[in-house]
Amino acid sequence: APAGVNQVYGYTGHNTVSYSAPSANFTLEVNSILSPSNGTVTVYQGDPLSPISANTLHAVQDIQFADQTLKTEWFTKASLLHTTNPGEFSVLSELYLAYFNRAPDAVGLDIAGGMSEPAANKMIANNFALSPESKSIYGTVDQNSSVSELTNFVNTVYQNVLNRAPDSDGLNYWVNNLQTGASTPGGFITDVVYAVNSQSGTTDKIYLSNKAAVGEHFGVEVGLTNNVQAQNVMATFNATYNSSGVAAAVHAANALTDSYASEVSLVGQPELIIHLGGLHG
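RE: above sequence
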């Protein structure tokens, strides 16, 4: 990658821009203009206000850092989805909350957004269900799991998504569907999320929409990528919600996110930051 401020054009073929430093030293600024193919990713090394380099990538497929390689289309597609279908983008944030009980990290959310179409969210949810992070929370759940395991799974998902237990009819319905194969674990969580999103003014809707907004503040508006911080933000939201209500919970969780961002920029703790165009201050 060239030093200084540059426009980097890949033109045809498969193109990779390579950096010798680890990804924690960089900020990505993403813009999707009309489609993912003519969107751009600007890669800042160091402080974006006074960078070592700032390369705006056109028709470049891969960004290779010392520790990982990222595909530009993940980010340009995510930016386009957020612009053209923010409701579906929010569903991805809610799936993170449901499966991992944390705010979505910017890289993971943008990868999911880069793959997502409305019909694909169940596929993404099924992939989440098979992930090591999800299994560490729920264990391995499938059609052959015991009633006790499925009951625990449904209860935990309800707690993560809605901050409450299911009513007895709902619990029995979902356990039966999971036993018979009428619902997969991924399909179940997606159905719950869409059912709540179809509501208006309910306690469930208010809780989930505000929780998702907190998640997007962390992973989209601020663009943080640290999973431990993501867990801390959501734990702060839940604890404050239960003690002081939704407005206080949003304020406390967003304040924690902003403090993490200040630590990255002021204390000199490097961390990969990803901004989807026009969504940050």
